[in-house]
Design a protein that fits this description.
The chain has about 230 residues and is an alpha+beta fold. About 40% of the residues lie in helices and about 15% in strands. The strands form 2 sheets. A 5-stranded mixed beta sheet has the order 6-7-9-5-8.
Length: about 230
Amino acid sequence: MLQENGITLLSPAEAARRLGVTSRRVYALVRDHRLRAQRLGGRLLVDRDDVEARVAGAPATGRPFSPRRSWALILLASGETPRGIDASTRSKLRRILDDRDLWAMRAKFVGRAERRRFRAHSSDIARVEREPGVVRTGPRVAAEAGFGLIAPDAPIELYVDGAMADALIERYRLVASSRPNVVLRVVPDEVRAWLGGTLAPRPAIALDLAEDLDSRAQDVAHEALSGR
């Protein structure tokens, strides 16, 4: 990834990883004028904004998973068994995981949580992160979760249920913002009850990293979710 005249450019390989396609497919999209690109020093480079717009707008194959199914798959992929899922359903979900890796299916997990972005006073950040009942995720905790990424200045990202989200917003006077330092990922009560500890399961953190615009985070997510 590099910058040219204020535009962020990706190599075809980087664009392919972000889109979940082959490099050959990226070249075809450029040739068909569906992705903007330019040549620098003989190298073809792709406009990252076009890639991200395509990721955001690309429909998943079939309908997205519900929050309940998303988290059942995430927990099964992490070696856990979610409560309240019968044996027949677990068997079907395991077949899904056997057929395709999480990276290939990542667009289907878009409904796993409602992502809400806020700005908190800088003096409150550490306290928000230490609140009982929150489950941490995102680039900020990637190193702690065993991923090769250190991002201590990234926004805090927390999985919470609706009641906890409302409490945090009121307690810390969180203000909706396009430049967030707090991201609340709100999940249904049943899903929140499935999540133990203060750190999200590794597959969930990897899926969250896959949504980050930083190419390093995307590379880490691709490696973790593709089973390489």
